[in-house]
Model the fold of this input.
Amino acid sequence: MAEHHDTAPAELGAPMDYNEHEKTYDLFIALSKWGVIICVALMVAMAFGFFVGGFFSATILFILICVAAWFVL
Done:
């Protein structure tokens, strides 16, 4: 006899894997948070490099902002 598998949509009562949903949501939030942090750090470093001058100092500032965010968050 064939095995029974729930292939119906969730709206019709198929079981949900809530642990997997939570892990996916947590990953999405973490990637969104770090994406915003990196974009803001990049914009600050680019502005610093434009007004002060110097690619090396702007790169160091970008790295410092990212490391500071890692320790703060």
Notes: Helices lie at 18-52, 55-72. Residues 50 and 58 are 9 Å apart (CA to CA). The mean pLDDT is 88.
